[in-house]
Amino acid sequence: MIKLIGRIALPTYFWIFVAWLFLPLAVMAAMGFRDSNFVAFPIQSWTTDWYRSVLTDREMSASLWVSLQVALISTAMGLVIGTPMAFMVARFTGAIRALLIAVIVLPAFIPIVVASISLRMFIGNFGFSTGIMAVAFGHAVSSVPFVVVMLLTRLNSMSTNLTDAARDLGADDFIVFFRIVLPYLAPALFGAFMFCMLLSFEDFTRSFFLGSFDPTFPVLLFAKLRFGFDPGLAAISTLVLIVTIALGLYAERFSRRRKLGNQGQVTAIGDNGNG
Amino acid sequence: MAETTPAIETRNVIKSFGSVRAIDDVSLTVESGIFLTLLGPSGCGKSTLLRSIAGFSPVTSGTIMVGGRDVTHQPPHLRPVNMVFQDYALFPHMSVRRNIGFGCEMKAMPKPEIEKRVDAMLDLIRLPAVGHREPGELSGGQRQRVALARALAPDPVSLLLDEPLGALDLKLRIELQHELKSIQRSTGKTFVFVTHDQDEAMSMSDLVAVMKDGRIEQLDTPQAIYARPATAFVAGFVGAANLIPARLAQLDADNALITVEGRDWQVPASRITTSHMPSAGDAITLMIRPEDVALGQAPEGALTLTGKVADQTFLGGRIHMGCETAGGTKIMIETRPGGMPDADGAIDFHFRPDAVAILSHSEKA
Known about the structure:
heterodimer; A: mainly alpha; MetI-like fold; 11 helices; 78% helix; globular; disordered C terminus; B: alpha+beta; Rossmann fold; CATH 2.40.50.140; 2 domains; five-stranded antiparallel beta sheet; 20 strands; 23% helix; elongated; MetI-like_sf (chain A); cell membrane (chain A)
């Protein structure tokens, strides 16, 4: 009986769940090929015109460019702010460490709307203007916690003997940092980079509150929605989906490969935490 | 011996952590080309001493000399000693070649010279084919060999090895012990080796320093440490030891008269191995190894005791007996099977006077 459940029921359950996850996306992708001005079933005639038109749509490509700039700037800020913080936290243990992590991680738990409004007020009162830099600043605030946590996990898995060995062989602090510590952190840095990029790219709320007249991609989509769905929205959404999934899978594979490569080393030192 | 500079010298080194002295006034001279082992239980200060020599653990007071140079206040990267770590500490993102060449690179050696040196090292550890692999792709034994090559490559005055074989299984450990010893011989390098494993210390070292509570209890050859332990602690740590309470009745230049369980025996005065020379009337401890205790007819001059067998374990070629003497002292005996004791368990056993060691009573194991 149990065997039967294991062989049939569990896989069925799994595939139903998968369908539920991916069916809406599949419908969206298909809609992009509908030869009509409206999104509806059934699709009677097919066209690639929508895909072609969104690729040449200036408004779309301009918003994607804005989003990319915001993502790059905010990610750079997140990494520059988060990396030294991770090093600082790594020097503490026990209650102080827990407290520091709590403070750093807090922004991730503040409701995004609240955070956005507070940032908007902050910017207004201190004479900063809304726009790409403001949005990037808002995104950086939310990406720092992820940077710190990801780097900290990796740092924890690093044996102190690794830096000791380098110093022992004649490396000064500067060389130890650039030749040993940074390369060791590289997979985590790369993972944090990808994660922050995607986080920034998909953010709507902060971009909406902090942006000016150049909308980011999600904000533009929202603006377009007000005039109703058309297959062009489905087409551009599908393209964005494909690109982000490809990048995400690549990042995942990359960090997984690095992990496997280090696994022997990690188990050898009796430490199973890794980043 | 010719006048040579010692590879390593510590003078009155003290390392305090709060009120605890991890190293308590250690003065140690390691002559060049020697394989010296710091042996002791965990927490005896052996690793701290090694890390102090490497520069990772600044000393509270005292002087550390490496190759005749005072390095007490120098950071690790300026000291001409290299360490081999228990967890190997190979750089995971560098190839084996880059790992081995790292020290030479830091010394700003020209590239072709580094390459030659790395090749020589790979040959030395008999792993010429792994140069382009990453450490993660190697087995534990291979990694430890690479760690050794990496430490040897910059040609340090001395190698410091911190329980380097501790993470390996027994068979591999013994294999690497031999290899380590032969590499030490062929390179003529000074090795300072830290371990808590007495067999490892005995089989590899030219000299063993037994440590306890931050101090060196005894520094001597493995043979001398085993045969002539200076304290009851050393006797018990290095092999199994029977410790029998006794009293020194008389002492002259050649002989000592000792009283054990009401009987007087004559023992050569040279068997007084403790550094605190006892005087007549003092309580002493008589140390005898289990394999030096024999059963049956005692030859002339042998020390004889009577006791009862408490338990015995058959070990194939040997038999292990736990006995209790009439005076209540527990004695371990290791002997060949045969000559079984009487049914009531009463036996006579004896040992040669020149097999015992006379220790100071005040020092407990």
